Amino acid sequence: DVREAIRRAAPDAEETISYQMPAYRQHGILVYFAAWKEHIGMSPPISGDPDIEKAIARYAGPKGNLQFPLAEPMPLALIERIVKLRVRQDTVNAEANRKKKSLTARKSRASN
């Protein structure tokens, strides 16, 4: 169910393994997730949207990673919101990196 929620929120993302954990990548890693004995863990820590930050506060683990207890219904709609936020952030970061590389290349050509 978690994988399906992630795919709905990030249909262009590729499932991969990174740091020996399942992850979804678009331009960069969107989210990692893993099943543990008592919870599903998700990382990296989420920030950038006050409404989502408030909604995930009860799931925050000691390092800011999320822990969704298996003894409770999985908050799939919240997971989709998290992944959609990460897609937006990833797209902005990728565009900024493209612009930065383009500017660096132009400066390099101009100095030659």
What does this structure look like?
With 112 residues, the chain is of the alpha+beta class. Helices cover 46% and strands 23% of the residues. The protein has 3 helices and 5 strands, in the order αββββαβα. The radius of gyration is 17 Å and the shape is elongated.
How many E-type strands?
5
User: How much helix is in the residues?
Assistant: 40-55%
Main beta-sheet strand count, sense and barrel state: 5 strands, antiparallel
For the record, give the distance between the C-alpha atoms at the N and C termini, rounded to a whole number: 55 Å
Helix-strand sequence: HEEEEHEH
What Rg, in angstroms, do the CA atoms define?
17 Å
Strand-pairing-aware structural class? alpha+beta
Strand content: 15-25%
Q: Report the uncertain regions.
A: none
| Mean pLDDT over the residues | 91
Shape: elongated
Count every helix, treating DSSP H or I runs of 4 or more residues as helices: 3
Strand order of the largest sheet: 1-2-3-4-5
